[in-house]
Design a protein that fits this description.
Largest sheet: 7 strands, mixed
Number of strands: 7
Low-confidence stretches: none
Distance between the termini: 33 Å
Helix content: 40-55%
């Protein structure tokens, strides 16, 4: 329900840190017009659009939600970008081995079978290719009841710890792994203004977003986003 609510509201940069954090992370990468980047779970296409505008690189955007795909392609058309958002399941990506220089996952992998997704990322990355991810992380030991509450609301298989991410990445053969917790100090203006709401927002959607905000407030000292950088 949470992902459906985001799609109906058309929130761009819904991941913690928003586009400002994305800009900071990609700034340190050597990106040129020849760089092939996969934006997994592209949402409304905010990150993909930024990457093309800033680097003129080759961007492939994919998502599993039909409404997100519709809104991403609407953005690309309005901005006259040579990008088309396509259906792509992170657990079974429709791409050949060794295809991408960079994969970006912004609050996406946590909502999937993590091991399957990481194996797919590794498969489609070129040798020495980079994974850049911003994902939900348990910063401290939470009671089982709280973990179950979070899992149920966001439909997660597990709530990962920093150590858990490290282990999963290593088991999928990633190297040069760097994982840092990221503390979000305040809402980002670019997230608040980048929305493309559907014509009719039902009561249930508003209730889901309110519950999301309540969970963020309740667990702000124990659930954090983490920044993951890893190499194939």
């Amino acid at each position: 329900m949470y992902l459906d609510a985001l799609a109906k509201l058309g929130v761009g940069g819904a991941h913690p840190g928003g586009l400002l954090l994305t800009e900071k992370l990609v700034r340190s990468e050597q990106i040129s017009t020849n760089t092939r980047i996969l934006d997994i779970g592209c949402g409304t296409g905010q990150t993909s659009a930024y990457l093309y505008h800033h680097f003129k690189c080759q961007v492939i955007a994919c998502d599993i939600h039909p409404l997100m795909l519709e809104k991403a392609n609407k953005r690309f058309q309005q901005e006259s970008l040579p990008i088309k958002a396509i259906y792509g399941n992170s657990e079974a990506l429709p791409f050949q081995d060794d295809t991408f220089d960079i994969i970006i996952s912004e609050s996406v992998t946590s909502f999937t079978n993590i091991k399957r997704s990481l194996k797919e990322y590794y498969r489609v990355l070129k040798p020495k290719g980079m994974l850049i991810a911003i994902e939900m992380t348990q910063g401290g030991a939470l009671p089982i009841a709280d973990i179950e509450k979070i899992k149920n609301f966001y439909t997660l298989e597990k709530v990962m710890t920093k150590e858990g991410w490290q282990q999963e990445l290593e088991e999928c053969s990633f190297s040069q792994i760097k994982i840092d917790l990221y503390v979000v100090k305040s809402p980002n203006p670019n997230t608040l203004c980048d929305i493309d709401p559907s014509p009719s927002i039902d009561t249930k959607t508003n209730e889901v977003i309110m519950e999301h905000a309540k969970l963020l407030s309740t667990y702000q000292t124990s659930i954090f986003p983490c920044i993951i950088i890893a190499q194939k």
